[in-house]
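Continuing the batch. This is chain 6 of the set; chains 1 through 5 are on the previous pages. Same settings as before, nothing changed between runs. Recording input and output for traceability.
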Amino acid sequence: MKKQKTLTLLLGILAATLIMSCQTDDAEIPVPQSQIIDQDNDASGTGLVAKYSVSGDAITLKQDGNHPSGFYSSTANQNEFWSFYTRLIPSDMRGALKELVLFADDLDGTAAYVAPLSDNDLSRWEMGYNLAYVWTSDRRLNKSETAYTAIHEYAHILTLDNTQVTVNNGSCSRFHTGEGCSNAGSYINDFFNNYWTDIYDENQRIDQDSDDEYIAFYEKYQDRFVTEYGATNPGEDIAESFTMFVIRDAPVSNRIADQKVKFFYNYEELVTMRERIRANIDFKFDLTGVVAARSQRFRIRGKQEF
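Output for chain 6:
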């Protein structure tokens, strides 16, 4: 499941390399065009805004992008996004994040991604964020959408870094994430063993270019997934389930989708992470609206041209 930055499926979600890599993105599900800001003189599809090195809460400019001057290239607006992100995810929880890539492209279905800076080192990661999906059309920070994406991407690093996965392109007796072989007792290996062993082969037989097959797979196993996007592969499933673990109250039912959310309560350190992130959500989280919008975008992704 290596992240392929150039591969985004129009509206994005399922596109990410289904070979299995979790380094795909939440942003694979773009915000509807009506919610995307009009950039004044900024042209669509112009790409990189800026690249920063990251050290805790501090970011240092490494590269100016080729994006036209305007709303997204404003340092104040970039700092507004970064301040929101750093307030949400505590600094000591994101020590592996070493590089931030900001881009703005409403023609690209990717809203965010994470990827290791080196295929051979899972201790250092890059996060990309598409600023075109961070603000609403009236230039208000879309806090619920942005927070959902941030938590989802954090979950990828949490479950794929060097403490969880060992780089290995050879044989692997446990779940191979694409980045490497998951360690015994790792979050993603335990998650896979609990919830994916009986359906994984079926999932891997899906034609990567067939939207209908992915939707059919989700609908067949709908009670197993917290969102449609979670049915993409185990990496996206654990990221979506972790996001729900953080945002939602503990589920009371015992359907498999809810078991996945309750899975994280087995780890004291993850419960502490949950509490710390939730303490930073100082706004009304519109989870119902976010989930409904994401579901709609998932369903129509192949019907809209960018």
